[in-house]
Structures are given as C-alpha cells and as structure tokens.
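Troubleshooting log. The previous structure file for this entry was overwritten by mistake, so regenerating from the original sequence record. Sequence copied from the archived sheet and checked twice against the printout by T.R.
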Amino acid sequence: MTGYPAWDQDSARSIIAGLVHLEGAALPILHALQEEFGHVDAQVVPLLADALNLSRAEVHGTISFYHDFRTSPPPRRVIKLCRAEACQALGCEALVHDLAHRGIAVDGHGHAHGHTHGPDCGHDHSHAADIAVETVYCLGNCALGPSALIDGELIGRLDSDRLAELCTDAGVRS
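Regenerated output below.
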C-alpha cells in the first residue's frame, strides 16, 4: 500500500478551496482529502463546515455515515473479502474461519492479537495497524471465487494458504 503524507492543515485548506465551488461539494472534498492523506482527520470538520456553510454536526454525520471514510491513517494492507452468495458457495466462510484461527479479525470481530483492525458498527478506524479485513458483497468476480480486493488488486480463487501469505506480507504473523 502506498504511504500517505502526514495530515497537513494548509494542504487540507487548499483541497477544500479547490473543490468548494462544486454543487454538493462535501463528498468530493472528503474523497479528495482521503485520497491525499489516506484518511479524513477530525481537524477538517470545522474547516469544511465553514467553507460549505454547514454545521459541524452535519460534516461529522457525513463522515461517520459513509463507511469508506477513515478517521485515522489506514493499515498497511486492506483486504476486502467477498462474502456474497457465490463466494460463500466457493468457500469464503472457511477463509473467515481460518482468519479467526490466525487471530485476524474480520470487520473488527474476533480475536485480533493487536495486529489487525477492521471497521466496527461505528466505522471507527482509530486503531489502524498492519492489516484490515473487511467484508464486501460482490466484487463481480463470481466465477473465480472466493475473491478479495487486496490493496486495490482483485484476487480470485483465494485459498487459506494464499490468504495467509498475503497477511504475512503485510507484517501480520500467523
């Protein structure tokens, strides 16, 4: 995964200023901030509220509503594991079970040995570590399931050994 620069208030202001003219600018600005910094820092809430004439609660609500917005730096590796019906039929739940035995949490559930983190119901990503395993429903690769999107790369026919290798590559010890 590509490293991101540290959060910078001046750069954030510049991003906001460059997109504030758009209709419905909140989401494009938040996406641009996350693309630049890897997350949306809480410091942006008052900046964005002022720029868009919104309340801080509205900005915070937008950030917390959309589960793809991270509020702290992301882990080194993000695995989005498909758990839709086709991938279930091809064994993805066995992969989830195997991850649990290795101490790797899926969606923030399960024993994590302090090395992993996934989103919880509140979408708080404040303890990002080496790896996050998140559930998605359909990556459009049904014939080659179980499938996962790993650091943006689609991987099909995923098995326990390959998944363990990908976790180890991120610095997670199994």
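The helical segments are 9-19, 26-37, 44-52, 56-65, 85-89, 92-101, 160-169. Archived copy saved in two places this time.
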